[in-house]
Each structure stands twice: as C-alpha cells, then as structure tokens.
Amino acid sequence: MNVLNIDDSRLTAIGLLSEAYTSLMAKFQPALSAAGLSEIDFETVIRLARSPEQRLRMSDLAAQTSLSTSGVTRVVDRLEREGLVRRQACSSDRRASYAVLTEAGLERLESVVPQHLQDIEEWFTGLLGAAELETFLTSLRKIRDVVRPCATAGAVDLSAETPGVTSEAPARS
C-alpha cells in the first residue's frame, strides 16, 4: 500500500515559496497602484529600464515575463497608450519590433522605485543577513535557470565586467 506523505518537505518548500510570493506582492501593491501601475506593468517597465538601450525585442520581453506573445502585445499596447513605452521597428528584421521605455516611462519608474525599494527592504531583503541574501539569490537563479531558461533573453550580463553587477531584470519585482 502506498502511503501519502503530506508532511513531505518538498510540499512545504513550494507552499512557503507560494505564500511568501503572494504576501510580498500584496505588500508591494499599494506603491505600484499609487504610481498607476499593475504588477505586470511594473515588471515590463523595470525590465525595459534594466535592458541595454532601455529596450527589448517584443519576443524577448515575452520570454522574460510570464506573458505569451499576445499578452505582452496587449500590455505594450496599453503602456504605449499611456506614453510609457513606444514601439520601434527592428532595422535588421521587418517582422520584429522593440518595446522601448520612454522618458515618461522612466519618470513613472522614478516615482515608484524609491518606495518599492523601501518595501522590499522592510518586507524581504532586510529580513536576511548579507550571506543569507546572497545564498538565496544564488538558489533562486539556479532554479529560475532550469524552469525558465529564457528569463534573461535579450539581456546583456555585465557581471563579468563589473563584479557584483548584472543587467538581468528581477523576476516579479
């Protein structure tokens, strides 16, 4: 007879991760809402801001986010109507286009990032020591790279050039 082990640490690990993520997003939402951004809007503009030339191919933006290509098109359409993002044709591939952060998009980010960083510090990173945070980030990257290998599509890794610096955009920050 097969015995169901509901006390399995694997269930605990995924449950804790899910609970922490959901609760953190609820803590971060007031600052995002005050800036007129949804969670996916913020993820999109922060990824663009942290990308070379503050732009990404639409396909790379879809790969980096949790959105399908049609989903990222709808988000970029909405952000474009708000003046936060603009589309730019790709000179080497007529089928491709870039989403580019506008000055208004950068200003919107500047209005929310200071509070968002305070919230991250209060509810997340400030609860961990420096060594714990580094270990946690290493573990998250290890998992992310297996379950979502295209998460940094279009990004340039600067960590080899500048120790401790990477251009990869944060997942869901």
How would you describe the overall organization of this protein?
By secondary structure, the protein is mainly alpha-helical. The chain has one domain: Arc Repressor Mutant, subunit A, CATH 1.10.10.10. It is built from six helices and three strands. It has a three-stranded antiparallel sheet. A hairpin with a 7-residue loop joins strand 2 and strand 3 (97-101). Helix 1 crosses helix 5 (103-123). The chain is globular and about 60 Å long. Residues 158-173 have low confidence and may be disordered.
Q: What's the gist of this structure?
A:
With 173 residues, the chain is mainly alpha-helical. It has helices at residues 9-34, 39-49, 58-64, 69-81, 103-123, 130-147; strands at 55-57, 85-89, 97-101. The protein has one domain (19-147): Winged helix-like DNA-binding domain superfamily/Winged helix DNA-binding domain (Arc Repressor Mutant, subunit A), CATH 1.10.10.10.
Structural class: mainly alpha
Low-confidence runs: 158-173
Structural domains: how many: 1
What is the arithmetic mean of pLDDT? Answer: 88
Q: In this structure, how is the largest beta sheet organized?
A: 3 strands, antiparallel
Tell me the CATH architecture. Answer: Orthogonal Bundle
CATH topology: Arc Repressor Mutant, subunit A
Strand share of the residues?
Answer: 5-15%
- Which sequence of strands runs across the widest sheet? 1-3-2
What's the helix count? 6
Number of β-strand runs: 3
Shape: globular
Q: CATH-wise, what's the superfamily?
A: Winged helix-like DNA-binding domain superfamily/Winged helix DNA-binding domain
Give the helix level as a range of percent: 55-70%
Listing every helix as H and every strand as E from the N terminus to the C terminus, the arrangement reads: HHEHHEEHH
Just give the CATH class.
Mainly Alpha
Cα distance spanning the termini: 45 Å
Which radius of gyration do the C-alpha atoms yield?
18 Å
